[in-house]
Amino acid sequence: MKGKHVYVLMVAALTMVVVVLVGTTVAADSAPNNCSHMTCGGIEIPYPFGIDLNNSSSNCFMAAEMDVLFDVSKYCSVDNYTKPTLTSDSYVFSSKENKFVTVGYDSYGYFNSYDGENEHSTTGCLTSVIGHERLINNGTCSGIGCCQVDIPPRMRYISIQATNFNKNSSDFCSYAFVAKNGSYSFSSTHLSQGLPFNRSPVVLDWTIEDNNCSTAPSNNMGIFNYYGCKNNSYCDDKDKDFGYRCICNQGFEGNPYEPNIGCTDTDECEKNKHGCKTKANCKNTIGNYTCFCPRGQSGDGTKERGCQTKATPILPLTVIGVGATLILLLVGTFSYLIYHKRKFIKMKEKFFEQNGGLILKQKLSTREDSSTESTKIFTQDQLNKATKDFDENLIIGKGGFETEVPLLVYEFVTNGTLSGFIHTQSNKVNNETWKTRLKIAAEVAETLSYLHSYASIPIIHRDVKSDNILLDRTNTAKVSDFGASRLVPIDQTEIATMVQGTIGYLDPEYMQTSQLTEKSDVYSFGVVLVELLTGEKPFCFVIQDGLWNEENKQEIKEVAVLAAKCLRLRGEERPSMKEVAMELEGMRLMNKHSWIKDDSNVEESRYLLHESSSSIYEPGDSITHGDIGYDSLKDHVLIALDDGR
């Protein structure tokens, strides 16, 4: 059997460019810089459509839609036949734009879809002429001498094969081929004299990958961006056998696949794609346009209604003078207000676009079918209502950056900040107050431990303080304000950066070296622990009245020792947030389970808890664990805090 690897001819203008179909698709953002605009035969081929004549690894194309010439399968004898094939992940014969045709005396043709050497689905048709020559009808392909069938969808890795019922005869040849709809007209001479062509025009359909619009964006992660639709475009998989394509949003044009660019705004006014009376009545906006009438005319400026000159009534000169002055004053004031309002709106639109608002809207639109809503864009009217027109009396804190837009909206936190919680309880602290504070400390420690140890890229918060810890109605802690946070490369433990943070919470080692590490957050958390213990702002070292009692004193001692460890001058001597979180959670577990408090289990419980965080308390530390006196505890805390500040 003679096999044949297929070369496809792309018809563009009047030039045919030879293209080798390579079975590959590449990520839209991974195209080399020199692939954006390729040329061949004087024809420019924009990304992601492209060619690769050398079958190299330059990945200059992702997919293509082409009118091509594809080889005809010819069978003249058992030793004289061809079997063309097409092997590609990105291209299929369009099931809507092509037909499969067989031509010959007593012939039949196969259209095979296969995987490697294993053919797994087949269609085709057969013709019979012997004894029916008078029924041959030129121009039609009804089954006598010529037959045709539709091509099923989703058939890839194709082979075409013509054959004859009388395989030993070489008097006439049989033919099988795919033809673009309307491109082939049957003639009886094709039976006796053979087809007048060796290749037939076909339509190759393309899409991006095997994903559809609901699954493709989920692959948009990591260092490669596998989602093909770029700025101001959307995904379309309607009427596609597999994969998807990208289309520019309404009001935008260009190449939706172009990396870092995508579709750009269409100037409907300049390109006469508007519904206004004239170009002079048109004003372009981002993704749209508006029609207007010039001063002194009424109407909306559209082609339907247009603009009309306002009628001028005949009035006495005095009335006209006063009226004209008043009108000019009103018009001037109104124009001034309109001008500034439009300027403000334009400015907001500009900020919204610059800060990625259009991209965010596009991302959210692809998740409309999602059952959960993690992100939402609020209008200014909604924010005005929620904040009582941004009443300054409702402000619980301000960040260190200044910017006009966008505003980051958090969930509503009923109980404000941890700072407010601590410093408004000075007259009502009790046993339950301490339990709540211990719970908050454990939750914050767990959050920081997650950022340091479990996030895909470690994150250093860089501004841990009680003002940045929010409490909901159940006093559940939520760490906020990541405006100063930094991502830490996986292969690094510290990064050099300009010193930034809040005095009183800043790591002294960070202030001296400008080397930011996870232990900088540990130090700041240690200050928060001291704040929870003392009820005072940083620099106060006395346990708050009302917290210390027989039930709480052991926990308070251990938290104080833990805070002192966090506040050590050298970062390498401090525990990790993971170890701190384990220690605090261990204290809470002892408090929750009554059996732990039983005298017979106290020593064993303490041993187990301290064993779980043994790396915090190392031999030779100035602070020991176990039963220590309150006076010696105060000395240790004061010394550790003084060293750390």
Explain how this protein is built.
It is built from 13 helices and 31 strands. With 645 residues, the protein is of the alpha+beta class. Among the domains are: 3-25 and 63-206, no CATH class; 418-644, Transferase(Phosphotransferase), domain 1, CATH 1.10.510. The strands form 11 sheets. Strands 1-9-15-12-13 form a 5-stranded mixed β-sheet, with no helix packed on it. A 5-stranded antiparallel β-sheet has the order 3-2-6-17-10, with no helix packed on it. The longest helix is centred in the middle third of the chain and has 38 residues, at 317-354. It is flat, with a radius of gyration of 38 Å. It starts with a strand and ends with a helix. Mean pLDDT is 77; it is low at 1-33, 53-59 and 604-645.
Quickly list its features:
Transferase(Phosphotransferase), domain 1; 5-stranded mixed β-sheet; 5-stranded antiparallel β-sheet; flat; disordered N terminus; disordered C terminus; disulfide bond; EGF-like domain; transferase; serine/threonine-protein kinase
Please give the largest β-sheet.
Answer: 5 strands, mixed
Unreliable stretches:
1-33, 53-59, 604-645
The share of residues in extended strands comes to: 15-25%
What is the C-level CATH assignment of the domain at 418-644? Mainly Alpha
Q: State mean pLDDT (0 to 100 scale).
A: 77
In terms of structural class, how would the helical and strand content be classed? alpha+beta
| Cα shape | flat
Number of helical runs?
13
Radius of gyration, taken over Cα atoms and rounded to an integer in Å? 38 Å
What is the CATH T-level topology of the domain at 418-644?
Answer: Transferase(Phosphotransferase), domain 1
Please tally the β strands and state the result: 31
Q: In which order are the strands of the major sheet placed?
A: 1-9-15-12-13
CATH architecture of the domain at 418-644: Orthogonal Bundle
End-to-end Cα distance: 86 Å
What is the CATH superfamily of the domain at 418-644? Transferase(Phosphotransferase) domain 1
- Percent helix: 25-40%
